[in-house]
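step=encode ok
step=design start
structure_in=
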């Protein structure tokens, strides 16, 4: 995890993104700014690689839909009797046009 200047005027970025037991990355750059940016990129990339799923907050999609409908869906009004069941928001108009949202009710 160091950026150092070489005798030839270039900059060496040497970092260990996965810790001391992981892979060492060494790369040369013309400017110190490029070397520091690359070092930060490599270090943060290793932290973002953990895509583990946290099941402690798992919720069924049907429960989420029911909760959304209880909190927001009741404010929608029916526009037509079409099979697509189009709804619109109350009092939401922009330049004379109503906003339409297609919802399926199960």
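sequence_out=
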């Amino acid at each position: 995890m160091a950026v150092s200047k070489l005798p030839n005027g270039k900059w060496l970025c040497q970092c260990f993104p996965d810790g001391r037991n992981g892979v060492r990355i060494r790369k040369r750059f013309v400017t110190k700014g490029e070397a520091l940016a690359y070092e930060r990129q490599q270090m943060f990339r290793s932290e973002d690689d953990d895509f583990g799923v946290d099941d402690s907050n798992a919720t069924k999609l049907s429960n989420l839909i029911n909760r959304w409908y209880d909190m927001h869906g009741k404010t929608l009004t029916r526009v037509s009797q079409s099979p697509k069941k189009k709804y619109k928001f109350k009092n939401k108009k922009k330049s004379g046009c109503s906003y339409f949202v297609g919802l399926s009710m199960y």
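step=design ok
step=annotate ok -> Residues 92 and 98 are 6 Å apart (CA to CA).
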